[in-house]
Amino acid sequence: MTVPLTNGTPAAQNGTTSAYDPLSAPFPKRKVILNVGGTWVGEKDGQYPFDSVHYWTETAKLLERGKFHGLFIADSYGFLDTYGSNISASLKGGFQIPKLDPAIVVGAMSTVTTNLAFGITSTTTYEPAFALARRFTTLDHMTNGRVAWNIVTSALPSAARNFGLEKPVEHDLRYEMADEYMDVVYKLWESSWHDNAVKRDKVKGIWTDPALVRPINHKGKYFKDIPGPFGSHPSPQRTPALYQAGSSGAGTTFGAKHAEAVFISQPSPQVAQKKVAEYRAKVAEVGRDPRALKSKGDGEVALAFTAGFVNVDWAQWGEDEEIVLPEGTPGRIFLDNYKRAAGEPGAPWTRNQFKEAINVSRLGAVTIGSPKTVADKIEEWVTVGDVDGFNLSHYARNDTFEDIIELLVPELQRRGLFWEDYPEVEQPKGALEKIGISAREGLQGKVGSKHLDPSHYGYRFKWIDENEKAQ
User: Fold this and answer.
1) For residue 404, which of 413, 78, 146 has the smallest C-alpha distance?
2) Angle of helix 330-341 relative to helix 269-285, nearest 10 degrees?
3) Residue 176 in contact with residue 123, Cβ under 8 Å?
4) Is the pLDDT of residue 224 over 90?
């Protein structure tokens, strides 16, 4: 599920500004954001395999036909090897291994679409900030502003080892480092090049005005000396739309400061509402409108998947043996959430029972039924859980997407819960191709919001000269 963050103070009916507390105000009626994730699951004979460019371009065209907001690609440099202390289950199920580079895949999909946004997961723990900033700027140019970055810190021991470390960076330290990392990329994206730096003056032979490009001269605790300037000119969004999915104390604090949409994974609307409220409260604490943050809800392979995230090897229990975990540990909290969702909060569960519960949902909720039944549940998640959108999983790639497009989307549109079409964007003079909405505009639901909102932490790094400040 997704929770976006918005800005602005509503006016009273008489035209004066009212005292407005967004945390206690009724949930506003809004149209849901629909994203999907992309994996190999659903390959069929006679269809392109997932390691073919056509698999991805055909999927992208299908999703744009259905008016989806975006395609989200999860990624990591590690493997899920906690379950059974090996990667056999992951290899067998093709889960998170093998992987392809999502940036290259997105470049291909962007050539056959106009409005579909692309969310890419990249880590602040192992990727140099300068290289990451250039990659996202390049993609933002190539997609006409349709790129989002899912910001993660890397926790998997296998990833640490593959980058030459003995063990992962400690949890809270990862977020402390990531916070400074964000300062670096904001400076590169927002501060190094002025909005008017690029001239493209063919007569005078001037591509860029040198006076409007400057170094960033970042000196910090973890990133000692990054002088700049940035080597890429500003892209349509400058800073990509920012996603994040941390659920710990440090993670939610980081998300409240930096994210424009956060992913949550909860078993029910009632449980989700508590996590969303926690996020929105933290967003308010840092001076942003909590309604600007968008919230999205997202066999042996399932056990391997969850084992890696909660650091519990479920294989230590026999199939019919009760799972017993210490109170307050991540694994116990995770297990108890599923028991509550199943209506069995105090019941003992065996490994087989737990496997059945998570086999379909992995880390999220499942709804089965007619279009009306599924739409009812989505509406409940929005009104009770206060989520803004959904990251939908698929089990038979095109079949699932086509069912959603042909059956569910019309029902959501009938209820006013989903847009009828992508908003029209004013076309630049001399444009050689149609320009669609940016990732940020789709997230916020309004054309004209391509760049970071002035209330966002990253906006403070934007190069604004004195004349512009006066205006």
Assistant:
1) 413
2) 130
3) no
4) yes
Q: Is the CB of residue 213 less than 8 Å from the CB of residue 193?
A: yes
Rounded CA-CA distance 37/363 in Å is 13
H/E segment holding residue 208: strand 206-208
- Place 348 in a pLDDT band, splitting at 50, 70 and 90: confident
State residue 393 phi and psi, 5-degree precision: -90, 155
Q: How far is CA 183 from CA 222, 246, 253, in A?
A: 11, 19, 15
Question: What's residue 297's pLDDT?
Answer: 61
Q: Are 148 and 243 in contact (CB under 8 A)?
A: yes
Under 8 Å between Cβ of 311 and 330: yes
SS3 169: coil
Q: Which of 219, 59, 250 is nearest to 151 (CA)?
A: 250
Residue 307 CA from chain centroid, whole number: 22
Please indicate whether residue 142 or residue 468 has the higher confidence score (pLDDT): 142
Q: Which among 126, 125, 122 is positioned nearest to 137, based on CA atoms?
A: 122
Distance CA 186, CA 297 (A): 27
Number of C-beta neighbours around residue 150 at 10 A: 23
| φ/ψ (deg, to 5) at 37 | -100, 155
Assess contact for 148 and 177: CB atoms under 8 A: no
Strand partners, 72: 37, 119
Q: From CA 366, how far away is CA 359, in angstroms rounded? A: 10
Residue 264 pairs with which residues in a beta bridge?
297
Lowest model confidence (mean pLDDT) among 34-43, 185-194, 206-215, 389-398: 34-43
The answer to whether residues 440 and 237 touch, using CB atoms and an 8 Å cutoff, is yes
Least confident piece of the model among 175-179, 248-252, 363-367: 363-367
